[in-house]
Amino acid sequence: MRIFIAFEGLCEPFDISQDQTVRAVKLMIKDFFHVQLSDDRQVRRFLELSYAGACLQDNWVLADVGITPGVTLRCVLKEEDKPILNVFSAVTKETLPIMGNIFLLSTAVSHLKTQVSRQCGLPVSVFRLRTPNGVELYDCNRLDSYGIDVGATLHLDVWAGWKEFLRGCLLGHKHSVRHRLSQQENLLRFQQRVALYIAAFLGHLNLAGWLLGAGVRADEPVGVHPSREWCRDTDHSDVAKCPVHAAVEAGQLLILKLFLSSSVECLDCIDPWGHSLLQIAIRQRHKDTVLYLASKLWSVVSCPLLSLPLRTYVKIKRWLLHAQKTIASRKFLGRSVPFQVRVGDSVLVDGFTQLETRAKVKLKTKDVLSARVSGGGCVAPTWPAGCGLEDSSLPRNMRLPRLQPATRDRVRRRRSNNRSVRRAECPSPEDSERNQNLWKTKVPLPPISHDTNPRPCFIYASPDAPAILSSSLASFSDHSGRTLRENAIFCLALASSFTEKPWLQQLGVARTLARRTVQKIS
After folding, report:
1. What share of the chain is helix, strand, coil (3-state, %, to 5)?
2. Are residues 191 and 279 in the same domain?
3. I need a labelling partner for 270 at 20 to 30 A (CA). Which of 3, 340, 376, 489 fits?
């Protein structure tokens, strides 16, 4: 078939076959137009084909995406800089590209950690970087002293037992964060500051509002882990950053308004380098944030007898708060001291101590009795081995009642109660929070089936049919790395990129891609 390629103001015909891939078409264009392509460690020059508003991938077959004779494809020569380093996050299981030049390898590790923190939203005090060989990178050393080359992949590790807690913070799930908070007071306060920092960076209003209601201040520095408070001389400078600084750097105007409405002292919050909020917003070029902060700073507060500029009002309020803290520290000795490490606390020595700082999950009695596992972070209880419905080793308030024989009246009551409960069902608050944070595909997906045995009906009755189908499903998951539903979602997401096509044609493309996936495996 004959198609047309539009490249740099020219439109040339090409005779190709329908079973050719996009990669083969790009090679034909490269030879015809004498295009110089390159793929070195720093710069990559490549050709990109687009059709119906979507970029065609190299392994796609032209017939699979609905390309017919006479179609015009748009070809563009692109040049992009390759990342100087890659960082694999143990929390999100994603690889973060670190852009820059070759001089980044001659800088300190602390500079790299600052870039990683601004890209992923995690404070520098909750993660560490290490080489693929397991060597930890210290802030005071330079990257080239570890033998790191261009394009190397570093690993981002967090405190033991903090992965689920940080995932809940990144997704903005308030209930997941609440169930994974520690019971130790000093560790609990540190986790709350970390959660507020992440919520401010990513713009999770519900999580930030709940933490502010719990007493966490937006102008309070995140700090370091309680086990590392004794080594303040070697701390990273970014540990003094506050959640309000993260909100201004990320341009989260709604979060910033929430912080200022809860505490106007945030306007006078200075970062570790002496920059105000307005200066940070100007450097990051967030126009809306700059206009809002400027209007706030030059506003006037009306008092009963006089009117004060907001800057003066904030300074007076800070003086009052400082005086209150000083008086409280004199009345109650040791109540608020700058150095909070006490005798008996755990101490972490870098490179020597193997410390397990796991956040304990708080389980209530009703959660243990219900034994329900939800996505919000409830953990199923671990019962003692060999315990039945009634176990003498359990306390009385945790023993389950004896089962009684069911009668007709009781069955009727249960059915009526179940109907009334189903009518009164309402969506949980966590589902409403997920709707704000989950990725919304352009193609509507079918509902999740709750059938425990979703197998098609065969015409003939064979005892080996379920085994054959189960083995086929297992082999598909092993070779492709995705389940059937995940593969369908993947194909629908690819087909939805063809924005200029109607929905039914996008669905046809998704079916063809799914069929091709099965054929390649077989």
Report:
1. 45, 15, 45
2. yes
3. 340
CA separation for the pair 344, 323 (Å, rounded): 31
Residues of the chain scoring pLDDT < 70: 41-42, 230-233, 329, 331-473, 521-522
Query: 403 and 411 in contact (C-beta within 8 Å)?
Result: no
Please state, in angstroms and rounded to a whole number, the distance separating the CA atoms of residues 294 and 283. 14
**What pLDDT score was predicted for residue 435?**
47
Bridge partners, residue 12, by sequence? 5
Do 97 and 42 form a contact (C-beta atoms < 8 A)?
no
Query: Among all chains, which residue has been given the structure tokens 């105007």?
Result: 253
Q: Is 206 helix (H, G, I), strand (E, B) or coil?
A: helix
State which of 115, 130, 158 marks the end of a domain. 158
β-strand partners of 142: 108
Of 297, 331, 356, the position where a domain reaches its end is: 297
Q: Domain of 254: which CATH number?
A: 1.25.40.20
What crossing angle do the helices spanning 503-521 and 484-495 adopt, rounded to 10°?
130
Tell me the per-residue pLDDT of 271-282, one tens digit each, with 9 for 90 and over.
888 899 999 999
At which residue do the structure tokens 């096509």 appear?
Answer: 501
